[in-house]
Structure formats: C-alpha cells, structure tokens
C-alpha cells in the first residue's frame, strides 16, 4: 500500500481538543488559533485538525459491523429477522445514556430559574427600606438568576456538542458498513438495487442519525418537565394553570397536523420540481438544437407550465409554514390570556410575582413541549424508516469468490476451461462468468492463473491518469512508457496540461470517450497478469486508433499471454487463434478464421460484404443479435509493428470557465432587488408597518399585565391603610374595600391578545407571499435570460453548473430562504423588544448595552469569516464520499477482478475522515460562537437583575418582573437570531447567483422590424461575402475571410480535417454567434432579420440527434402546425411508421428521458422527419459521427436525394462515400477555403487535400470513390456547369443576375 491512490490529505495538524484542559473544553478555547488564522486568510483543507482517533471511520465502522454480525448470527440461530436497531443500541447505549444526565440538569435549572425570579419580585412587592435581611436574601435570588443563566449557557452547548458528535459517529459507522457491503454485492443483489438508491442511502438516510440523537432525550425529559411545571404553577395560581396547560396540549397535535400537511405538500412539490429539473436538463443539453430549430417558445411554455404548478404547491406549503410560525409566536400570549382570565374570573387578585413566575414557567416548558418533544417523535419515526431501508440493503446477497493461490509452474500455462456452461449470456456475460461475477446455472468454469479485465463501458475513478493506470501497483518507468505507447496515450499525455498527472474529474469528465477507453485498457495491460479478458475495448475509438491498439497492444505487448477479446469489429478476426460466434446466448460456431470461412456460418457473410470497407469504417454492421467473440493465444500474427503513435491525431481536451464565487458580504441593493421582485414599494412599506404593529402589540400584551398588577398593588396598599385608620375610629365597618374595574382591564387585555394574533398571522402570511412571489419572478427572469443568451455561454459553462442554479439555488429561494428570512425578522424584532422593555424600566441599562453590542458585532464578523470557510470546506469534502461510492459501483467488476476492494475501502475511509474533520469543525465552531453569545446574554441578565436591586427605591414590582422575564428569554433567542442572520446572508448568495444569470448578455432579437417576405427563401441561394467568424470577441478567428456561393438546388459537401471550421460555417449561417461580413440568403442580408425568422426557414439535421421528453407529436411538431396525416406521411417516408404504430398511444406516447427508448439510428430518422415536415428550401446536414448502422445511413441518403431534390443541401461529411456524388465539394483547411469544385475535378489534383483524404481510406475504397465521382460528373447536365459567379481581379465577388 506504499503508493496508494493519491494521498487524500497533506500533513494534518493533531487535534487540540484531545489535550485541552477542562476550562478550554467548556469554553471551546482550543479553537482560538483556528479563528485567528481564519480571520487573516481563507481557510484551506490543510488548516483542519486531524480526526480524533475515536471518530475514525475504520474504527467506528468495524466496531458497529462486529455488533451487526453478532446480531445476524443470533437471529439465524433463533430463526428471526435480524434487527439493525438492536446492533446500534448495543453499540452506543452507554455513551449516550451519560448525556441524558446533562439534559436532566439543564431542564431542572430551567424550572428553578422562574422560582428565583418570583422570590425576587416578591421582595419588591413587600418592599420595606429598613429590612436588611430581606435585601440580602434578594441579592441571593438575583445571584441565583444570574448563575442559572450562566449554567444554562455552558451546559446547553456542551450537551449539544456531544449529542451531535454521537450522531456523527453512528452516521460514519453506517456509511462504512454500506460501502463495505456495496463492494460485496452479487449480481442478483445488484439487480435488486440501483446506484442511485445506494447513493441515496449514503446521502439522505444516514443523515437522520445526525438529527435523531439531538432530540432523543427529550422523549423522557419532556413529560417530566411538564409535570414539574404544572406542580409549581399549581402552588402559585392554583387550578387555573390547568386551563393554560390545556391550550398547550391542544397546540401540540395542531402542530403535528401542520407538519403532516406540510410533508404532503412537500412530496407533491418534489414531483413537480423533479420534472422541471428534468425538462431544464433537456433544454440545457439540447440548447443548440432548440436554437437552430427556433423552438424556444414551446419549451418556455413547457417549463413555465410545470413551474406554475410547482409554485402553487410551494405557496400552499409556505402559507402552512406562516401559520405554524405565527401560532408559535402567539401561543404564549393565548396561554397566558386563558390562564389569567380564568384566574381573575374565579375571584383571585392578580399580583406581579404570580404573573411573571407563570410567564417564565410557561416559556420554559413551551419550547420542550411544542418543539422538542414533537420533533423527537418525528425524527425517531423517520430514522426508523431509514434504518429499515439500510437493513434491507445490508441483508442483500454477497458474492463469494474463491481465491486459490497458484504455483509458478501453473502460471506458465494459464488456461480457461468451460464445459457445458449454461448462463443467460451474451459475450459480456461469458466474461463475467469467467471473472466469477455471474453464477453459472450449471457446468464448470475452471480458471488457472491471475485474471485481469478491461470493461466494455470504460471506467475511470476520480484521481490522476497515472493512478488510474497503475491502480495500486508500483511505478516501473520503462514498462509504464511502453504501455502508454501501446495504448496510444503518449500524444494525449503531451497535450494535457499536467501530462499523466492531470486530475480526471468525477466520471472522467476531462477525458473524451476514446481517451477513457484507452486508459481503461492501459490499466489492464499494466497489471502483468496471466489471462487478459478484454470486453470490446476497440468500439469507443476511431478506426485508425483501433488498428494501432490491436497491433501494438493486443497483438504486440500482450502477444505471449492468453487473451479473450470480445469485439464486433470483424476486420480483426483474421489474427485470432480461435473464434467463438455467439448468437442470443448460444454458441453458433468455433474454430479458426479459415475453418469458419469454410463452414459458412452467417457471420462470414457479413464479413465478405465488408472486406472492402474494412479499413475505413469503424464498426462493421452486424446481424440483429449475433455478436462475435474472438480469442487469441500465444502466437498471433503481428501485422505492422512500426510505431504509429506519432501520426495518430491528438484529441482536444476542453477547458471550462472557472465558477464565479463572490467573496465578502452582500450589498443592500441585492436585498432590495430580491424584495422588489416580489412586491411593489407600497406593499413593502405596508409590510414594515405590519411587522412593527405585531411586535408592539406583543410587548404591550405583557406590559398591560404588569400595569394591571401594579395598580392592584397600589389599591391593596391604600385600602389596607384606609382600613387600619378607619378600624381605630370604629365608625364605619370594613365595607369600603375598593375593587379594580375588572371588565375594563380584562377587555383591554383581550383586545391586545386579539391584536397580537391578527397582526402576527397577517404579517407571516403576507411576508411568505411576497418572498415566494419573488422566487417565481426571479426564476422566470433567469429562465428567459438563459434561453436568449448566445450558445457560447453553454460551451464554456458545464451543464451541472447551470442546472445547479435551477435546482439548488432556486430550491433555496423557494422554501428555505422565505422561512429563514421571516424567522430572522421575527427574532430580530423580539430582541429589540427585549432591550426596549429593559431600558424603559431602567434607562441606564443602555450604558452597558452599547459595549456589549459593539463586542457582539465584532464577534459576529470574526466568527462568520471562519464559519463560511468551514461550511465551504464541509460541502466540498462531502462530494468525494459520494463520487467515490458511485464510481466504485460503476467499476465494481474491475475492482473485484483486480482484487482492489481493501484499497478502495481504505480510500473511502480516508474520504470519510476528511469530511469528518470538516464536520467536526463545523459543529465545534458554531458551539464556540454560541457559548460566547449566550455568555454575553447572561451578562445582560446579571446587569438587569442587580440593577433592579440597586435602584430598589424607585422600582415597581411589575416593571421588575417585566424586565427580568424578558431578559431571561434572551438566552436561546439571541444566538438563534444571530445564527439565522448568518443563514440569511449565506442563502442570499443563491439570490446573487440567480440575479447574476438574469443579467446575461442576450443574442439578437427573435423578431425585428424588418420581416422577410412570407415565401422567402423561394430559391435557396446562399452567399458568403468575406465572412470572418469567432466564438467570442477575444477568441481566435475560426473562419478567415470566407467568400463562397451555394447555388439554388445545389448539393454541396463540406469536408476538412478536425478543427478546419466545418461546423463553424453552419454556426455562422445560423448566427449562433454573430459573424463579421455579409451572409445573404436569396438576397436578404441575414444579420438584419430576427433570429426566429432566419432559423425557421432553414432545416438542419444535427450531429447528435436529440429527442425531448414529451409526446412523439411534440417532438415532430411542437407548434401544432401540421395535421395528423402530414405527420404520418413524414414518418412513413423515413420508415418509422411501423415503429411508432407499435407504441401504446401512437403519436401521443410519452418518450422516455431524452428519447432513450429509441436507437441512435431511429433518433436520426426522427430528425429527418422533422426536416421533411418543415418543407424549407435550405437543408443542412451535420453528419452523425456516431456509427449509425449502414441500413439507416443508406435510407437517409436516399430520402435526401429524393425528397430534397428542389432544395439547396449542404452536408458536413465525415465519411466520403456519402458526398462523393455531390455537385460540388468545399474543402476547408484551418478556416480558409482550400478548394471548391466538382469532386471529379478536385480528384485530378494529386497534391490537393481532397485527393489525399480519398487515398487515406484504403486502396479498394479509394478506387470505388474515384469511379463514383467520375460517373456523377459525366451524368450531370451541362446547365449545372455554369458557374453562378465570376471572380474579379482583386478576388472580390460579383454575382451575375443572369446566372440566377
């Protein structure tokens, strides 16, 4: 394992939390150095601390795995199904139970604190300036309040940190087990699950463990705490407390109901979102075609339709959220209103100490009962479902492979023996049986020797090209060089920026298909094994490279080893020692090439016809299901061994533009843009007013209680004084006890409660409405802007990046951002309310508040710098875990054939550990911040408590109660508000990214003032006049000074080497990017008319035929311009009528994603049918490079010659036989016109490019091409010879009207 796949991590720092002292652990001081670095520069992965040994993926995974294995064993003995939950509980119960003690202590403090508060207020109610003992006691209570707030701050965050880490451990262990299982799945098990499902287990299901551990303890703490609170309230206010509790109990199922409804809407929304993203995916991948067909409008309608449905569901779920938040906001007020109304009506008198003890107790229990307890139930049920899904996966079949060590002698004569084998097979399954992947139904497979394998779908894993080829073996430079040369990779390596150390992206994104196939082959060749199984390695590369691979590699470097080669390129069979022909799973024939020729099996008939074309065509045709398998052994004829790798054409590797990532904070103008997208200015002012009203009524509600209690107190005092004086005189009895005007006080109290409810609900709903509206507006703007941007944008930005804007960023705007924003505004206003109330009671409290505020702002900025980086690193380190899993699943056979499971497991653990490092920092940094914030709050509470005692002479009991009970609520709320503000800022980057895409440059307008005549172009004359063309203003000029004319009804072939500018000619004609110079079609200057007017008048058959999800009819005729008979006729002409009639709903059949249920050939024919339907005078064919089978090809050629006789046809050709009988051929070279004349004329010039191209096809082919060209030339009517234009002396173009 010395040279593993690249080390995933450079030198990491040891984790300081392992050696930190107690004080540092409580306050998370050990993180300070990290924050210091983070404030100076961007954090990188090297700055992260090592994983603690007990959090290592390998250790945790193996520990849980052993418990699970025991459970499976026990279950099989007891004949029951194994339970994964049991294994998890056995593994983790000890450490988790200890954390329960933390929760218990924390909740006890929460309940005791209001009692201290009540005692303190009582001192003010019975205030006696001379009673010193009472004063000291009061100081004790004030200290109790401050200490309990401080205790809460410290305990709460320690508890949270530990439960989240417990969740993290379970998640890591689960991931390790899932991956370990994935590497062992048998073929049958793979059939029962999909890659997507396994990745889903790893990305979604295991995350439930992170959440469930947080809330689990509240299942028992919640009920206990509620009981304790009821007991204390009973002492204070008697049975009235039950009324309030009843409301609380009633609110619980209400919130659960909201949650149920909400998830129902969510799942409906998700379905719409999926289909919108799918459509977007097609629009973005097929944007070239959509633009060339001018089909933007039907697609816009399609997306807008789905989006409208999606938004209506999102709106409903947002309203639910608004109701839920408003009910949470007003719940406290309703509970208090009910409690005290009952209390007063029963005939009790209100007093400050009672009121505020009740207020504090209710708010202590409210969080637990309405938030944590239901959350615990919900998370437990969610994780139960996830555990069930993971268990189902862990119980799938495993593959058992027998490894028999071999002696040296055996290695010399390595063999594969197969007897009476029955498998469900074609060629690939034969190989997989030999590999031991597919179980044989019956029969024997004996393998002597080490196997190695190159899969049919080339497989590369993320890493450098070198690590992909070495695959864990030592680097031996000489052998490595020879392998590279044999696999034709030498030239590619020289072209790549970092040679063989270039990093291949996820799924080999940076390599072309041919390069991937060659790397895949090189990996197998490098592994010095005894038997080579090569599954069709030649199909992904072009003929020239294919021949090189066959001669240099398969029959060169491997010539002394047994090889089993699967291929359908029959030209290579002559070199084989033994050939097996398989057809639909049966062996039709076997023997050497000459034996098979004599026996006349059906494959040879294919070969005879093809011998002539053999050199030039990449893939020989094959009869419907017959495929061939050739096996060459020791002595294979090495054909030409001259090293051809120098002349092989090199492939161009695309470079992508860097993703823009904005640094720093977000400007106010962005918020303004965001809000203005959803509502007009008047509406926004109304919203501000509503927010203020809601918050004011919220505070007045409590203030009124305090005022009422104070009035009652004054009354009690005065009446007791009067009573005592009167009592001495003894004249009147004590019948003058004054009563407060109850209806007045209760009425205003009820009114305030009502106002709080109304404003609270209105504010929530209207804000959600506005924010969802702006999500809708921004999406539509972005979508329209994307449709109108030039194609160049899609060439430099990968699909994933554009789709990310439409999936992730719009997802944020739709659901997360509105909720976070509303929550933030609510909490923010409440914090201001707390400070306002406190300062109205003790004005000088503002003096310490200012330094606290400044410290807080500094702390927030300091924290966010680091936290943003940590978050960024966390998300970037998460993706390798998934991509490693999905690439391992794709290359499962290869990994097992190379026996590399152990190494891949280690790499997975390393990826996990890297993510854990980031996750660990993510957990601890947020706790570091929260502890400091809550510390500041407890300072504020302390100042308030002792401040009241210092000013005891001027204080009324009600005010003290109000100020203190409010200050205590600041504890959790303040840090929550700050965290939400950071979240809002983070999510505003999504808004920023969306806004950035709403302001893309747009191409020329679709329609202009100047409309061409309706029957234009009626002749089809195309003139290029000194045209220069480049894809971007600063890019290289691709077409240089092109002047040419395509006459009406002329058939012109356009040929040239790769990169000569053939496709650019078409792009210029369609104005995919604006060309310089003039292009005229029937005398109309193309640059003056609208793009749709231009593009709808030219038909194109594109290189990669694209079908879109939707009905067959929509694919042929998205504007509904044609009648059914027209459509059927078009289909009949391309011989697809039968195929479409077999579909369940004929023309109305929905196609699978991007038409994948049609073959490439059939898709090409659909494109041809589109062109027939359009009946345009100009047809452009960009010939498919993918090998369409010859029958389809012939059919397309025939249809074009006959249906488009009256049209001007331009064909970009890759195969010369399709255009050799054209009227003229335009030869491009490096962006200039090299030759332009009839093919026969061009072939007379032996130095011309065209002549050389014809010669390269091979002797037989070249002869037949020459013959065809001559014949076509002789048959042509002389009228065509008139050369529609003459060239003047200076080489400019003069068009003769006569010739037209």
From TrEMBL:
Which residue ranges run through the membrane? 20-38, 96-118, 138-161, 182-202, 214-234, 241-258, 325-346, 681-700, 742-762, 816-835, 841-859, 929-951, 960-978
Enzyme Commission no:
5.6.1.6, 7.6.2.2, 7.6.2.3
Lineage top rank: taxon: Eukaryota
Q: Which GO terms describe its molecular function?
A: ABC-type glutathione S-conjugate transporter activity; ABC-type xenobiotic transporter activity; ATP binding; ATP hydrolysis activity; intracellularly ATP-gated chloride channel activity
Low complexity composition bias: residue spans: 630-640
Gene Ontology cellular component annotations, sorted alphabetically = apical plasma membrane; basolateral plasma membrane; chloride channel complex; early endosome membrane; endoplasmic reticulum membrane; recycling endosome membrane
- State whether keyword Cell cycle applies: no
Q: Which intervals hold domain ABC transporter?
A: 385-609, 1022-1255
InterPro entries assigned to the protein according to its UniProt record, in alphabetical order:
AAA+_ATPase, ABC1_TM_dom, ABC1_TM_sf, ABC_transporter-like_ATP-bd, ABC_transporter-like_CS, ABC_transporter_C-like, ABCC4_TMD1, ABCC4_TMD2
Q: Where is this region: Disordered?
A: 608-649
Q: How does it sit in the membrane?
A: Multi-pass membrane protein
Subcellular location field: Apical cell membrane; Basolateral cell membrane; Early endosome membrane; Endoplasmic reticulum membrane
Q: Name one GO biological process term.
A: lipid transport
Q: Does the keyword Lyase apply?
A: no
Q: Which UniProt keywords apply?
A: ATP-binding, Cell membrane, Chloride, Chloride channel, Endoplasmic reticulum, Endosome, Glycoprotein, Ion channel, Ion transport, Isomerase, Lipid transport, Membrane, Nucleotide-binding, Phosphoprotein, Repeat, Translocase, Transmembrane, Transmembrane helix, Transport
ABC transmembrane type-1 domain location, by residue? Answer: 98-381, 717-986
Query: What cofactor does this chain's UniProt record say it requires?
Result: Mg(2+)
Its UniProt entry gives the catalysed reaction(s) as: 3',5'-cyclic AMP(in) + ATP + H2O = 3',5'-cyclic AMP(out) + ADP + phosphate + H(+); 17beta-estradiol 17-O-(beta-D-glucuronate)(in) + ATP + H2O = 17beta-estradiol 17-O-(beta-D-glucuronate)(out) + ADP + phosphate + H(+); taurochenodeoxycholate(in) + glutathione(in) + ATP + H2O = taurochenodeoxycholate(out) + glutathione(out) + ADP + phosphate + H(+); ATP + H2O + xenobioticSide 1 = ADP + phosphate + xenobioticSide 2
Task: Describe the family membership recorded for this protein in Swiss-Prot or TrEMBL.
Answer: Belongs to the ABC transporter superfamily. ABCC family. CFTR transporter (TC 3.A.1.202) subfamily.
Q: How does it assemble?
A: Interacts (via PDZ-binding motif) with SNX27 (via PDZ domain); this interaction accelerates MRP4 internalization.
Protein name in the entry: Cystic fibrosis transmembrane conductance regulator
Q: Which organism is it from?
A: Onychostoma macrolepis
Instruction: Provide the organism lineage as a comma list.
Output: Eukaryota, Metazoa, Chordata, Craniata, Vertebrata
């Amino acid at each position: 394992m010395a040279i593993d796949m690249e080390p995933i991590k450079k030198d990491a720092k040891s984790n300081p939390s392992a050696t930190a002292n107690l004080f540092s652990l409580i306050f998370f001081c050990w993180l300070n150095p990290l924050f210091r670095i983070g404030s100076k520069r961007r954090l990188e992965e090297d700055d992260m601390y090592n994983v603690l040994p007990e959090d290592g993926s390998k250790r945790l995974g193996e520990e849980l795995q052993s418990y699970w294995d025991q459970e499976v064993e026990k279950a099989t003995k007891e004949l029951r199904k194994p339970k994964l939950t049991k294994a998890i509980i056995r593994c983790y119960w000890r450490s988790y139970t200890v954390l329960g003690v933390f929760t218990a202590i924390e909740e006890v403090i929460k309940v005791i604190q209001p009692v201290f508060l009540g005692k303190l207020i009582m001192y003010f109610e019975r205030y006696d300036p001379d009673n010193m003992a009472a004063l000291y006691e009061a100081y004790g209570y004030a200290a109790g309040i401050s200490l309990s707030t401080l205790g809460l701050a410290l305990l709460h965050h320690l508890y949270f940190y530990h439960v989240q880490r417990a969740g993290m451990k379970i998640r890591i262990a689960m991931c390790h087990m899932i991956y370990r299982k994935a590497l062992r799945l048998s073929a049958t098990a793979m059939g029962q699950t999909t890659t997507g499902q396994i990745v889903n287990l790893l990305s979604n299901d295991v995350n439930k463990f992170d959440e469930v551990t947080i809330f689990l303890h509240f299942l028992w703490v919640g009920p206990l705490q509620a009981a304790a609170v009821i007991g204390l309230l009973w002492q204070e206010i008697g049975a009235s407390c039950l009324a309030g509790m009843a409301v609380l109990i009633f609110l619980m199922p209400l919130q659960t109901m909201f949650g149920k409804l909400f998830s129902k809407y969510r799942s409906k929304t998700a379905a719409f979102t999926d289909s919108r993203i799918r459509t977007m995916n097609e629009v973005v991948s097929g944007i070239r075609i959509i633009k060339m067909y001018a089909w933007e409008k039907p697609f816009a309608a399609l997306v807008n339709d789905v989006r409208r449905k999606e938004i209506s569901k999102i709106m409903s779920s947002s309203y639910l959220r608004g109701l839920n938040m408003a009910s949470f906001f007003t719940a406290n007020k309703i509970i208090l209103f009910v409690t005290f109304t009952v209390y007063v009506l029963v005939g009790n008198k209100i007093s400050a100490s009672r009121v505020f003890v009740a207020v504090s107790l209710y708010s202590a229990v409210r969080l637990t009962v309405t938030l944590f307890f239901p959350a615990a139930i919900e998370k437990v049920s969610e994780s139960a479902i996830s555990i069930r899904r993971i268990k189902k996966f862990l119980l799938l079949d495993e593959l058992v492979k027998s490894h028999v060590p071999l002696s040296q002698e055996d290695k010399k004569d390595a063999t594969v023996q197969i007897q009476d084998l029955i498998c469900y097979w074609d060629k690939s399954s034969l190989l997989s049986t030999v590999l031991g992947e597919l179980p044989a139904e019956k029969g024997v497979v004996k393998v002597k020797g080490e196997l190695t394998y190159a899969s049919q779908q080339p497989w590369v894993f993320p890493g450098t090209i070198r690590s992909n080829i070495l695959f864990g073996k030592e680097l031996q430079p000489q052998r490595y060089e020879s392998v590279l040369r044999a696999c034709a990779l030498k030239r590619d390596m020289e072209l790549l920026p970092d040679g063989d150390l270039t990093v291949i992206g996820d799924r080999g994104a940076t390599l072309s298909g041919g390069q991937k196939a060659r790397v895949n082959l090189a990996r197998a060749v490098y592994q010095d094994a005894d038997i080579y199984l090569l599954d069709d390695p030649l199909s992904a590369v072009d003929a020239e490279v294919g021949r090189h691979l066959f001669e240099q590699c398969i029959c060169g470097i491997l010539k002394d080893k047994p090889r089993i080669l699967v291929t359908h390129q029959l030209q290579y069979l002559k070199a084989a020692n033994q050939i097996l022909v398989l057809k639909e799973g049966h062996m039709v024939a076997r023997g050497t090439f000459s034996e098979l020729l004599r026996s006349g099996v059906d494959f040879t008939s294919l070969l005879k016809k093809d011998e002539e074309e053999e050199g030039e065509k990449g893939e020989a045709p094959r009869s419907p299901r017959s495929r061939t398998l050739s096996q060459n052994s020791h002595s294979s004829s090495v054909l030409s061994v001259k090293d051809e790798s120098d002349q092989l054409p090199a492939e161009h590797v695309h470079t992508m533009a860097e993703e823009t990532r904005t640094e720093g904070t977000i400007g106010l103008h962005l918020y303004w843009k965001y809000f203005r997208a959803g509502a007009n200015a008047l509406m926004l002012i109304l919203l501000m007013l509503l927010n203020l009203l809601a918050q004011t009524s919220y505070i007045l509600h409590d203030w009124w209680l305090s005022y009422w209690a104070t009035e009652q107190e004054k009354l009690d005092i005065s009446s007791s004084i009067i009573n005592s004086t009167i009592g001495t005189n003894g004249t009147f009895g004590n019948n003058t006890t004054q009563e407060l005007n109850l209806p007045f006080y209760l009425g205003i109290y009820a009114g305030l409660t009502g106002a709080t409810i109304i404003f609270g609900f209105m504010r929530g709903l209207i804000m959600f409405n506005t924010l969802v509206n702006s999500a809708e507006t921004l999406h539509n703007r972005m979508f329209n802007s994307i449709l109108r941007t030039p194609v160049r944008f899609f060439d430099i930005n990968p699909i994933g990046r554009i789709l990310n804007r439409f999936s992730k960023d719009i997802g944020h705007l739709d659901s997360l951002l509105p909720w976070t924003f509303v929550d933030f505004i609510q909490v923010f206003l409440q914090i201001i309310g707390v400070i306002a109330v406190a300062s109205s009671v003790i004005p000088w409290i503002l003096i310490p508040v200012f330094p606290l505020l400044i410290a807080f702002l500094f702390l927030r900025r300091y924290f966010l710098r680091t936290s943003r980086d940590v978050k960024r690193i966390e998300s970037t380190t998460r993706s390798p875990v998934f991509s490693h899993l999905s690439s391992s699943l794709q290359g499962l056979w290869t990994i097992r054939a190379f026996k590399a499971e152990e190494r891949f497991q280690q790499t997975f653990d390393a990826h996990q550990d890297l993510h854990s490092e980031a996750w660990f920092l993510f957990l601890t940094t947020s706790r570091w911040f929260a502890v400091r914030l809550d510390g500041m709050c407890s300072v504020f509470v302390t100042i308030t408590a002792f401040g009241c005692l210092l000013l005891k002479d001027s204080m009324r009991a009600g005010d003290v109660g109000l100020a203190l009970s409010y200050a205590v609520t600041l504890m959790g709320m303040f840090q929550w508000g700050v965290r939400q503000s950071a979240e809002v800022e983070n999510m505003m980057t999504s808004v920023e990214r969306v806004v950035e895409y709403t302001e893309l440059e747009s191409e020329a307008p679709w329609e202009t003032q100047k409309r061409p005549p309706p029957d234009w172009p009626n002749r089809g004359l195309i003139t290029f006049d000194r045209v220069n063309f480049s894809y971007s203003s600063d890019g290289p000029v691709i077409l240089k000074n092109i002047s040419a004319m395509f006459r009406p009804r002329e058939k012109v072939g356009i040929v040239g080497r790769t990169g000569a500018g053939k496709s650019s000619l078409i792009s210029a004609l369609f104005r995919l990017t604006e060309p310089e110079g003039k292009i005229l079609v029937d005398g109309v200057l193309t640059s003056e008319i609208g793009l749709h007017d231009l593009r709808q008048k030219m038909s194109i058959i594109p290189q990669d035929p694209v079908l879109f999800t939707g009905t067959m009819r929509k694919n042929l005729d998205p504007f509904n311009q044609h009648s059914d008979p027209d459509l059927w006729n078009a289909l009949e002409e391309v011989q697809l009528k039968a195929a479409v009639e077999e579909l369940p709903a004929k023309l109305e059949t929905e196609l699978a994603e991007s038409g994948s249920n049609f073959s490439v050939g059939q898709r090409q024919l659909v494109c041809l049918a589109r062109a027939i339907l359009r009946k345009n005078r100009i047809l452009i064919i960009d010939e498919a490079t993918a090998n369409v089978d010859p029958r389809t090809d012939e059919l397309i050629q025939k249809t074009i010659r006959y249906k488009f006789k009256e049209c001007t046809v331009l064909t970009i050709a890759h195969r010369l036989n399709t255009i050799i009988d054209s009227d003229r051929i335009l030869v491009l070279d490096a962006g200039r016109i090299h030759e332009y004349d009839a093919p026969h004329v061009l072939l007379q010039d032996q130095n011309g490019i065209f002549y050389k191209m014809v010669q390269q096809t091979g002797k037989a082919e070249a002869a037949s091409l020459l013959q065809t060209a001559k014949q076509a030339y002789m048959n042509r009517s002389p009228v065509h010879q008139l050369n529609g234009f003459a060239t003047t002396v200076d080489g400019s173009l003069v068009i003769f009207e006569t010739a037209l």
